Amino acid sequence: SPIFGHGWPGEPLGDNIPMFVGSHSTVYGLLYTGGALTFGTFLIAIGCTLAKAFRASVSGTGPQRACLSIIVALAILCYGEGIYSFAIPTLFAFCWIGAAFNGEV
Questions:
Q1: Are 39 and 27 in contact (CB under 8 A)?
Q2: C-beta atoms surrounding 85 within 10 Å
Q3: Distance between CA 27 and CA 4 in Å, rounded?
Q4: In whole angstroms, what is the distance from residue 5 CA to residue 91 CA?
Q5: Does pTM surpass 0.85?
Q6: Residues 80-85: contacts with CB within 8 Å, 24+ apart?
Q7: pLDDT in tens, 62-103
Q8: Distance CA 97, CA 21 (A)
Q9: 37/1 Cα distance (integer angstroms)
């Protein structure tokens, strides 16, 4: 189901490997569970966020430049880990991004 995905993380990879195909990587997880439709929406969202952060960092100060580096780091982490698994530990980073976009830092 390449367009709409399978809707769930899938079966374990093997008897000795209790890992599911769509459970650990944001990229592969979205492609497996949500298909190209969901993954395309994710790419649009991350692309718009990166573009806004880049525009803010060009004319902004240190906090806006830090915002860009935080977003790039989060985008890189999405390939190797599910974004939902590090959303709570990096809550401060998400608050920093929002404050930098709002001009409060």
A1: yes
A2: 12
A3: 15
A4: 29
A5: no
A6: 80/24, 80/25, 81/24, 81/25, 81/26, 82/23, 82/24, 82/25, 82/26, 82/29, 83/26, 84/26
A7: 888 999 999 999 999 888 888 888 889 989 999 999 998 887
A8: 30
A9: 11
